[in-house]
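Whiteboard transcription, Tuesday session. T.W. wrote the structure tokens on the left side:
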């Protein structure tokens, strides 16, 4: 990404839940702590937004991003928040980093945000989220790709409160159960809290309709796992990551927060890695 490099980097966060709270904790202990400043937090329910960073303003309306001179607005608030905050973020900051990437399965929204970014000279950034291997998949897509398959395997608890409850007996499972096979677009639409990653792999590789996604509940694991495989003119890719779930939200992985921390650190550090 091409955020202006200066110190401190002025960051706005959208959402003050498990991921963004953890991002702030991790940044405050990191080597870039002095080089970043959380200046605003956009929330839906201000009465629930406890313990926000001392210098941050609490925002409830996207128009309040104006005048804050932001470098990055980083979203981790859920898919509806992307449409709600995205246009204003792209007009007011150098970059809008999306964690709820499933929102971008709506092609009209994706195209609208890209055209706002183009007009404003900013960037819509799809963070790698809970995934591993996205850098290689995106690089591989410069040559023809034949197939990308993404299996999302989570413990039954991570699928509670989602349509999986109607497709598989989550509490009675004794072995892994596959309950969805379909396109990345459909996975993200039906499982908005668990399959944002499907859109990340799709946008990196062969798109929302050609990327095949399988969803699995596995009572034998404690981690949120992603198995990504691809082949094409570049060769073959096969990557598995076993993510520790976040203590405050078992649907989300530690790595989703770590990816945001990496993106922010790379925007301010003299070494981008
Ligand atoms: N790309 C990836 O790999 C991953 C993506 N995700 C995505 O990240 C999202 C956030 O995850 P996580 O932090 O664990 O979720 P949480 O549920 O812990 O936190 C989400 C927070 O966002 C707030 N929120 C909801 N709507 C809005 C809005 N319109 N504007 C501002 N804030 C809002 C909620 O506030 P309240 O309810 O109090 O109003 C809540 O505090 C998930 O919903 C999912 O879409 C998650 C994991 C991995
Ligand atoms: O954290 C994960 O493993 C992935 C996830 O929840 C999502 O894509 O929404």
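and on the right, the sequence the group agreed on:
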């Amino acid at each position: 990404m091409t955020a202006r490099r200066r110190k401190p980097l002025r960051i706005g966060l959208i959402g003050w839940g498990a991921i963004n709270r953890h991002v702030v904790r991790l940044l405050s202990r990191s080597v870039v702590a002095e080089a970043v400043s959380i200046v605003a937090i956009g929330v839906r329910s201000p009465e629930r937004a406890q313990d926000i960073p001392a210098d941050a303003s609490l925002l409830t309306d996207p128009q309040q991003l104006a005048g804050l001179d932001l470098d990055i607005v980083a979203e981790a608030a859920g898919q509806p928040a992307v449409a709600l905050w995205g246009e204003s973020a792209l007009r007011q900051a150098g970059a809008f980093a999306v964690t709820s990437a499933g929102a971008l399965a709506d092609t009209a929204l994706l195209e609208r945000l890209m055209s706002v970014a183009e007009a404003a000279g900013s960037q819509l950034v799809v963070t790698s989220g809970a995934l591993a291997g996205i850098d290689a998949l995106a690089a591989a897509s410069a040559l023809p790709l034949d197939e990308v398959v993404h299996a999302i395997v989570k413990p039954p608890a991570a699928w509670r409160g989602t349509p999986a409850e109607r497709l598989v007996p989550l509490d009675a499972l004794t072995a892994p159960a596959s309950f969805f096979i379909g396109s990345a677009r459909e996975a993200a639409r039906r499982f908005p809290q668990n399959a944002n990653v499907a859109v990340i792999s799709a946008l990196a590789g062969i798109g929302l309709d050609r990327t095949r996604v399988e969803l699995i509940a596995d009572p034998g694991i404690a981690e949120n796992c992603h198995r990504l495989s691809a082949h094409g003119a570049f060769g073959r890719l096969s990557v598995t990551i076993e993510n520790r779930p976040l203590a405050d939200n078992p649907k989300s992985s530690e790595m989703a927060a770590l990816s945001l921390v990496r993106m922010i650190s790379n925007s301010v550090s003299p070494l981008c890695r």
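Someone added at the bottom: Residues 134-243 form a domain with the Dihydrodipicolinate Reductase; domain 2 fold (CATH 3.30.360.10).
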